[in-house]
Amino acid sequence: SDEYKMVSKKWKAKPTSIDLGDGILIKDGDMAIIAGPCSIESEEQIKSVIQHLKDNGITMMRGGVFKPRSSPYAFRGLGLEGLILWYNLAREAGIKIVTEVMQVSQIEEMYPYVDIYQVGARNTQNFNLLDELGKVDKAVMIKRGISGTIEELLQSAEYVFSGGNEKLILCERGIRTYERASRNTLDLNAVPILKAKSHLPVIVDPSHGMGIRAYVPQMALAGVMAGADGIIYETHQVPELAYSDGQQTLDFAQSALLADQIRKTFALR
Ligand code: PEP
Ligand code: MN
């Protein structure tokens, strides 16, 4: 098929490793843990999350400063100023930054402060954004589209890879189905299929995939056993007060337990 080629295993048999520096890698045969709030909210919140991550040996922090919200009246993020604040605190702590880029004009202004550009589920098929990220010398994590197929995710990845940026990560974050009992349907079928078809690392996001705090940990562990190379999840010091996605966000005790369980489950694989 010429639908995609360079991201396929036929093109490159050896799994792609993403090296973020300081010995922090995302790669096949390893288990990356990326945790943090849905949105970056304040200096106090950033400090509190960083301390939690450090206490639990987690070296990659997620958080949005440009937020794609369903309602224009919802909190839309602290923007570049928030990213710079976060960057200064994270660098000092040796923690890498994973954050969403929503449009082409943000790529350059975010560049000095980002370790992994996240392409959100609402932007998986923003082909102009993907083209521009193909020209950047920094890692990109592409989330599966809200109603996107596995093949469409790989084709989106092909845009970036064929544009010249091979530092790519795929993320299964749930798809919209007829089922409304959970926010999305986490499609764990995608994990072994993506791993078989592509040389790129695959990360699972059980927070957006499930959308219900109490059930996030078991879906994270299911993702580990499905063969994921990493898990990304939301955590916050007081989830009930989070500016976004509090209903699916773990508190620090739940997060500490989950990080430990992810490592133990991975060891069984
Ligand atoms: C997020 O990671 O907070 C987010 C908005 O994710 P998604 O694009 O998967 O909805
Ligand atoms: Mn979120």
Automatic annotation (TrEMBL):
Domain DAHP synthetase I/KDSA residue range list: 23-265
Keyword Cell membrane (UniProt): no
GO BP annotations listed: aromatic amino acid family biosynthetic process
Gene Ontology molecular function terms on file: aldehyde-lyase activity; transferase activity
The keyword Transferase belongs to this UniProt entry's keyword annotation: yes
Entry keywords, A to Z: Transferase
Protein's name according to its UniProt entry: 3-deoxy-7-phosphoheptulonate synthase
Residue span relative to the full protein: 65 to 333 of 339
